[in-house]
Design a protein that fits this description.
Layout: E1 2-6, H1 10-19, E2 25-30, H2 33-42, E3 46-49, H3 55-61, E4 68-71, H4 76-88, E5 93-97, H5 101-104, H6 111-115, E6 119-121, H7 123-136, E7 140-142, E8 151-157, E9 178-185, E10 188-190, E11 203-209, H8 213-220, E12 228-233, H9 237-245, E13 251-257, H10 260-269, E14 274-277, H11 285-288, E15 296-299, H12 304-316, E16 322-325, E17 342-344, H13 346-359, E18 363-370, E19 374-380, E20 403-409, E21 412-414, E22 427-432, H14 437-443
Parallel strand pairs: 1-2, 1-4, 2-3, 4-5, 5-6, 12-13, 12-15, 13-14, 15-16, 16-17
Antiparallel strand pairs: 7-8, 8-11, 9-10, 9-11, 18-19, 19-22, 20-21, 20-22
Helix pairs in contact: 1-13, 7-9, 7-13
Length: about 450
């Protein structure tokens, strides 16, 4: 596959280093010749000095005949313009990396559709999503990159006092926006049916709309939730995305920002967050703010060494968990040794998402719920899927035990009911047995 990447920064470089060894012909464009020289020594890619916003430069790079164009500079507007131009001159597919919510969420305008771009990728948002899921529950697993975080998957150990114990699932009256996808009991795991009864000690997997999962979780774990105290360090775009992801009554969020001007700006943008202006590393501000009573500390400044030091300091002072956001993999091997609980990399997140889009399969596997029992599949519904399009879900001949757990349609994602119908262009999440893949491909015309 011929791939042109605009931008030799962290995401662009890492994309080239991952995609080139897979046998793709990669051309990297950047205005900084020194950056390109560094990558030439590390990966088998063709480099071109120039601006990705010029059609003649893109044509020289081969974007007019390329299978994929990736715009991954640090500037959203450059990425949007470059990807749009690449599409206009003939590139098969285009991806633009964006940082800001106004573009990614299409506030006032669907920028991707308007500019002819196939996909927008926002690593900071996806990383915030993953961090938030981990904070909500150590056993939480986001259905990766599905429906921009609107759908989530949780695994919960059911205690004896849970309301769900001994009651058939059909009698629990769970919120319509959630489903029990799998049950693990000792060494046995199975796909539940309407009359299945959950027992104390079972490990239950729930999939549903993020905004409504709280009510469902409490049916299976009554002491779940409670207000969690989270400290976030950094006024970066990553910090803002994370604060937005934690915006609900279950989180008390304090955001530490060193620059007074930025602190004031974010105080206006994030009214649900307590803004604290100060230096976490070189002051007693963590002690003053009682970090020892915090449930979680997340360091997400733009400097990863600072993130590691701050998270390690917070952990040593008593924070229950400490997380650092890193771009490069250089320090990942140190995380466990210095006592940090988690590390997340927006760069790696972006490349993983690009790889997934590159696969281009109509039916793909998102993950495993219970080994050998239940997998999560993502399906992009093509026009040829006559057996499922505009058919009530109750009438679709899914593999035994499988269920359509979620549907993403445009900017909306939801957990469907039995009478809902799949439409062309929808993306659906199906939970089913590991041997369901071939059947699903045939059913959905793949």
């Amino acid at each position: 596959m011929d791939i042109v990447i605009c931008g030799a920064g962290e995401v662009g470089r890492h994309s080239a280093e991952v995609l080139a060894p897979l046998g793709h012909n990669v051309t990297l464009i950047d205005q900084n010749a020194e950056r390109l020289a560094q990558i030439d020594d590390a990966a088998d890619v063709r480099s071109l000095v120039g601006s990705g916003t010029r059609a003649d430069v893109l044509s020289e790079a081969g974007a007019d005949k390329a299978d994929l164009f990736i715009a991954a500079t640090e500037v959203d507007e450059i990425n949007l313009l470059a990807a749009s131009i690449a599409t206009a001159i003939g590139c098969e597919r285009s991806i633009a990396r964006v940082h800001h919510s106004v573009y990614y969420e299409g506030k006032g305008l669907d920028y991707a559709k308007h500019l002819g771009i196939d996909h927008l990728v926002c690593p900071e948002y996806t990383t915030a999503q993953a961090i938030a899921a981990t904070l909500r529950s150590p056993g939480a697993h986001a259905v990766e990159k599905f429906a921009r975080g609107a759908i989530e998957l949780l695994r919960i150990r059911v205690p004896e006092k849970a309301k769900a114990v001994g009651v058939p699932l059909c009698d629990l009256k769970l919120p319509a926006a959630s489903r029990v996808a799998a049950v693990e009991r000792g060494d046995v795991a199975f796909l539940p049916k309407a009359r299945t009864k959950v027992l104390a000690g079972d490990l239950v997997t729930i999939i549903g709309e993020t905004k409504s999962l709280e009510k469902t979780v409490k049916v299976f774990k009554p002491d779940a939730g409670g207000r969690m105290s989270v400290m976030v360090m950094g006024g970066s775009t990553q910090g803002v995305w994370l604060c937005r992801e934690l915006r609900n009554r279950n989180f008390s969020v304090r955001l530490f920002v060193q620059r007074p001007g930025r602190a004031q700006e974010l105080a206006e943008k994030l009214p649900w967050v307590t803004l604290i202006n100060g230096d976490v590393i070189n002051s007693d501000i963590l002690m003053d703010e009682r970090v020892d009573q915090a449930d979680a500390f997340v360091a997400c400044t733009e400097d990863e060494e600072t993130n590691i030091l701050a998270a390690a300091r917070a952990k040593s002072m008593g924070a229950k968990s400490a997380t650092a956001v890193l771009q490069r993999p250089t320090y990942l091997h140190l995380i466990g040794h210095i006592g940090l609980d988690h590390a997340f990399s927006p760069r790696a997140t972006a490349v993983t998402e690009i790889e997934r889009l590159l696969a281009g399969q109509a039916v793909s596997e998102l993950g495993v719920i219970a080994q050998g029992i239940a997998n999560v599949y993502e399906i992009r519904v093509p026009g040829m899927a006559k057996q499922v399009i505009d058919v009530p879900l109750r009438e679709i001949a899914l593999p035994e035990g499988a269920l359509i757990a979620a549907i993403s349609r445009g900017q909306r994602a939801f957990v469907p009911g039995a009478d809902d119908r799949v439409q062309v262009g929808d993306t659906v999440v199906v939970v089913g047995a590991p041997d369901s893949l071939d059947t699903l491909r045939k059913l959905f015309g793949a």
